[in-house]
């Protein structure tokens, strides 16, 4: 930004709820305006981000410039919330832009620590980086989500649920005027990235899948009570190519966690099959909802500074308490236990592009699915499948070991 530019201050973030009264006050202030403020508060950490209320011309000496916008889709009242990081000196030989896609119930703000390095890549290569919220999630349009297929018609159910997301991504691509994209997806966002590539193969340059959901066949593990203690994570460690011994170690740890599952899983299974969303529980507890979110965010982001943790909590609360929409896809796509009704491992061999799987050392996603997928790709003649294990990281690998994942992302974006 230009020297001397004055940026209007944002209201201070709410404290993480520590008492009942604070939670109630936080609840009533949730809304679109507050949601936008909470997201912008995270994005203002990026020196190249231009706030929506800043009319001054940005500093063109910066290699990139970033801004947020709503990208309207063809259907009225449908739009995708988008962060655009574009080079100020675009190259005619630039690689396809990277598109970052969040997981279930999350939003683009979760990647705020990854954007600086991705922006450096965009500036160096004269390309762009985009991050968006899936339709019905984050700050994108919360439109009704419905599936018309009968419960027993699994193939049609899955196809309808997947199309809600991947077709809106394709509409977004057309609106943005992009020819090809490199998709960087996390968890359910990684699942949708693969589905999109299968449906629109000419539009994807490569895939980078961070702890992807829905890969292996058969029962997978439910989310353990201890995903990763942030106190064990100091950001050190690297990405290492996966070996059979490493995968076996991760799976052994997952099996130990599975033995501690509660008997209440039977109730959870019933609710899941009935189309229940875990966010319903938070929204339906009028007074305790914000406190539940505060407990999660304060535990989950222990590795962040106090200010970053507070701002992440505020952001999570706003996108969680928004109207239910895309979240209801989950029971159509995944069976109880988080294994896919139509596993990606049985579909992925059709891809002819580079595919990179990335798992955390303490991940709850079964890495065996990634191992088998790489082999399936190889057998189909695609030798560009790879798999990495990120040390000292759990399911949210991009937050648990930021440096290792950022280095790997740049490496994979530059890989030919």
Automatic annotation (TrEMBL):
GO terms for cellular component: mitochondrial inner membrane. Gene3D superfamilies: alpha/beta hydrolase (3.40.50.1820). Residues 99-401 form the AB hydrolase-1 domain. Residues 220-240 are annotated as: Disordered. InterPro entries: AB_hydrolase_1 (IPR000073), AB_hydrolase_fold (IPR029058). GO terms for biological process: cardiolipin acyl-chain remodeling; lipid homeostasis; phosphatidic acid biosynthetic process. Pfam families: Abhydrolase_1. GO terms for molecular function: lysophosphatidic acid acyltransferase activity; phospholipase A2 activity. Belongs to the peptidase S33 family. ABHD4/ABHD5 subfamily. This is Cardiolipin-specific deacylase, mitochondrial. It comes from Hypsizygus marmoreus. The lineage of its organism: Eukaryota, Fungi, Dikarya, Basidiomycota, Agaricomycotina.
């Amino acid at each position: 930004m230009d020297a001397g530019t004055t940026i209007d201050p944002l209201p201070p973030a709410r404290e993480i709820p520590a008492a009942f009264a604070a939670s109630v006050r936080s609840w009533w202030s949730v809304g679109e305006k507050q949601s936008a403020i909470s997201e912008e508060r995270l994005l203002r950490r990026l020196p190249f981000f231009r706030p929506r209320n800043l009319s001054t011309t940005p500093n063109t000496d910066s290699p990139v410039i970033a801004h947020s916008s709503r990208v309207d889709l063809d259907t009225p009242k449908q739009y995708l919330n988008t962060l655009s990081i574009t080079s100020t000196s675009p190259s005619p030989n630039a690689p396809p832009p990277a598109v970052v896609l969040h997981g279930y119930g999350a939003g683009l703000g979760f990647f705020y620590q990854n954007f600086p390095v991705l922006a450096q890549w965009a500036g160096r290569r004269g390309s762009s980086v985009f991050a968006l919220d899936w339709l019905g999630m984050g700050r994108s349009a919360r439109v009704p989500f419905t599936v018309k297929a009968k419960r027993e018609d699994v193939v049609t159910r899955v196809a309808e649920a997947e199309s809600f997301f991947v077709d809106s991504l394709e509409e977004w691509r057309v609106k943005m005027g992009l020819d090809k994209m490199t998709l960087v997806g996390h968890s359910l966002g990684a699942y949708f990235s693969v589905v999109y590539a299968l449906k629109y193969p000419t539009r994807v340059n490569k895939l980078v899948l961070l702890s992807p959901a829905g890969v292996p066949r058969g029962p997978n593990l439910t989310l353990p009570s201890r995903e990763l203690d942030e106190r064990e994570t100091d950001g050190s460690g690297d990405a290492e190519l996966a070996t059979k011994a490493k995968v076996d170690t991760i799976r052994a740890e997952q099996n130990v966690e599975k033995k501690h599952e509660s008997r209440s899983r039977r109730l959870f299974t019933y609710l899941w099959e009935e189309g229940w969303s875990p966010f319903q529980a938070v929204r339906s507890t009028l007074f305790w909802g914000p406190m539940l979110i505060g407990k999660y965010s304060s535990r989950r982001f222990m590795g962040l500074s106090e200010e970053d943790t507070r701002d992440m909590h505020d952001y999570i609360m706003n996108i969680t308490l928004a109207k239910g929409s895309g979240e209801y896809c989950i029971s159509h796509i995944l069976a109880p236990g988080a294994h896919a009704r139509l596993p990606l491992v049985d579909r992925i061999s059709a891809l002819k592009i580079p595919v990179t799987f990335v798992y955390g050392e303490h991940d709850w996603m079964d890495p065996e699915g990634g191992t088998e997928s790489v082999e399936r790709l190889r057998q189909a003649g695609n030798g560009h499948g790879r798999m990495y294990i990120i040390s000292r990281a759990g399911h949210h690998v991009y937050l648990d070991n930021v440096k290792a994942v950022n280095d790997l992302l740049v490496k994979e974006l530059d890989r030919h």
